[in-house]
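Dear Dr. H.,

I hope your travels went smoothly. While you were away I took the liberty of generating a structure for the chain from your last submission, since the lab meeting agenda had it listed for discussion. I wanted you to have the full record in hand beforehand rather than looking at slides cold. The sequence, exactly as received, is reproduced here:
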Amino acid sequence: MIKRDLYLSKIKNFIDTNVIKVFTGIRRCGKSMLLNLIIEELKAKGVASQNIIYINFESLMFSKLTNFETLYKYIIEKSQSLKGKIYIFIDEIQEVESWEKTINSFLVDLDCDIYITGSNANLLSSELATYIAGRYVEIKVYPLSFKEYIDFAKSQNKDTTLSNKEYFMQYLKFGGMPGIHNFNYNDINIYQYLSDIYSSILLKDVITRNNIRDVELLERIVLYILDNIGNTFSLKNVSDFLKSDGRKLSRETIYNYLKALENAHILSAVRRYDIKGKAFLVTMEKFYLTDIGFKHAKLGYKKDYISGYLENIVYLELIRRGYTVNIGKLNTNEIDFIGTLRNEKIYIQVTYILETNKDVEREFSPLKKVSDNYPKYVLSMDNLEEYNIDGIIRKNIIDFLLE
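The corresponding predicted structure, in token form, is as follows:
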């Protein structure tokens, strides 16, 4: 197994502490792999295998444990003959009704260390989650970063070494779901795999969980969103699109569908921030995918849209690094991303290539109008040495991702 140090470094300080470790993220992004990595760490530290209880609710083996009382009884019985601390790992905990009651009871009744995963953003927002309020730490897990992608690719293909640019063009096409590395980088097989994951998420975490009846209409909305990733968005746009297709849906229902997709971690809404007025705007947000590979699997990879793909990848990298990300508005200008971390900011413009002086002016001009002294970058694919204009740094996107 490839170690995902970004997450392991976050979790190591919480091992053997009396807090529940909660891993959240889209299905198949590597949460189960992280649980297994932690289990290997524990075994290496001398924890006996029998003191580690692992349950994965995607396996039919545990289908009878989806009632919280049944799950509680099962783990209590398994732990009665054991000596020392018990380590409990539960994958896809949202499949258990009222799971919070069980987890809270384990903290009271056992000497244990608990790790759980979930694929829905509402996992920790229900009323029942008050049972564990103040007693958990959440670790948000995302598909592979570009750096991790290279690590996985080199591990799977030890006889083939590509340049960073060649790896990046793969990453642009396929995204970062860990499982794609099992398909020898074959477009047809990878896109079939991603399409199947997408369909599974849509069924389990959107349609079934939200009791959506008009599945065909939901899929039309999703395809519209996929086709407009990185474009400014409004409910009116979607409503007009559906009307042009002979369908009607209230704006409230569209909003609920979008929230369901966000809760399933398929996409993220990014709000606009008025830099001059220092206020968030309630309209014209943007959506980005948790993994760009889903768009290509459903709609095909189109080179003409590469600027939007690059934006999506940079957005994901910023949130992996812990930034809160917004779109910047400054009078009539737009800044692709404002990242905020511990009251520090970073401003970023993303473009494909700066071919002409007009391109340079278009990308650098909005950043020149920002009066503070936080770092400002224009990221592009140009094979040029890093340079700066008025303190604004032009950097290659690949170099930025590998920092």
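Two observations you may find useful: The chain has a mean pLDDT of 93. The longest helix spans residues 187-208.

With kind regards,
E. W.
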